[in-house]
Amino acid sequence: MKKVITYGTFDLFHVGHLNILKRAKALGDYLIVAVSSDAFNAQKGKKAYHSDQDRMAILKAIKYVDEVILEESWDQKIKDVQEHDVDVFVMGDDWKGQFDFLKDYCEVVYLPRTEGISTTKIKDDLKDKL
């Protein structure tokens, strides 16, 4: 079985999220999604609208997702790849090159983002409308 893993906050779930999950799943048989915890997001200076538990529940309901885990630090990726016997690591191409260090452990794939949609854009659009 070919295992794939991807990481993200996945706040304000939108079609861009759905697209990357669908394309990531197509690269293997089993898709693991690591969701950034609220505490980890705070360390990065980010705050999600939905709690990490709610974001995990949403992802567990997506048909492309086989398993959801919590991401609590930048440096857990190697451990996750090894412990979950991952074959392919997937991220959006806005991260291109940032995770090449994982090539010693698995294949690394950067997928194109869905044009015109992002959580940041949604938040900005909502601010403009209020």
Automatic annotation (TrEMBL):
It comes from the Bacteria. Residues 5-123 form the Cytidyltransferase-like domain. It is an enzyme of class 2 (transferase). Keywords: Nucleotidyltransferase, Transferase. The keyword DNA damage does not apply. SUPFAM superfamilies: Nucleotidylyl transferase (SSF52374). Its EC number is 2.7.7.39. It holds the Pfam family CTP_transf_like. GO terms for molecular function: glycerol-3-phosphate cytidylyltransferase activity. This is Glycerol-3-phosphate cytidylyltransferase. The gene is tagD.
